[in-house]
């Protein structure tokens, strides 16, 4: 009887390699890592507390009680937060802004990841498109506001265009850099196993670029959050940027300062989530 041996697939070959085995001569340092992380958290919290104290001292020392400048003090801002949540529906405005940021990031991923993979794989294409992309990357996304309004009108579509354009470049560049840094021996292994392009993409390229891509997403979130507020001043009736304009027009400067604090807190939280995802992925690859 003749037995036919099954050709090993690319996933079988990759799964057979033990990536989790520790290097020789190295000992686990989990406890040390936890101590460093705990210390960093406490130092960061102390830094934030010191910043609030300095802010409070500066505003109270430079302004008189009941003056306009006193409304920019941190205690005035925190005191106005309950009214913002109840009367101005701050949570709803924040959700609208988060939805716009998510849509802009999704558009950037939809365009930037495939294009970045293509540029990273085809060197002639990189040489052809790199000068154009570097030129466009240096143009402020807010410079496109008149064109966005003329093309898409006032509303969400113009904001999506501006946010997607702003987030595209860190996503595209990090993806292309991640593809360029892939060990060619992995690609040759896949080709020796007659892997299809889809198998190379799923089992080698995407896992290899996950770390750089998450770092690019983190950079994109920071840019998105900066561009969001002025972009939401394009005649929309909801969002944190709209709320900034609304509180300014009502001369409610304590509420305006509170909105600024909320914008900073949400941006900080989004960056922290992206950072945790990147760290978790790097740990899983060890």
TrEMBL record:
Instruction: Tell me, in one coarse class, where this protein mainly resides.
Output: membrane
Matching Gene3D superfamilies: MetI-like
**UniProt-recorded name of the protein:** ABC transporter permease
Q: Would I find Zinc-finger among this entry's keywords?
A: no
Q: How does it sit in the membrane?
A: Multi-pass membrane protein
Q: Where in the cell is it found?
A: Cell membrane
Similarity comment: family membership? Belongs to the binding-protein-dependent transport system permease family.
Name the UniProt key words of this record, in alphabetical order: Cell membrane, Membrane, Transmembrane, Transmembrane helix, Transport
Q: Where is the ABC transmembrane type-1 domain?
A: 94-274
Q: Which Pfam families match?
A: BPD_transp_1 (PF00528)
Region ranges (Disordered):
1-32
The species this protein was found in: Paraburkholderia youngii
Q: Where are the transmembrane segments?
A: 40-58, 105-123, 135-154, 160-180, 200-217, 223-244, 256-278
Asked if the keyword Transmembrane belongs to this entry, the reply reads: yes
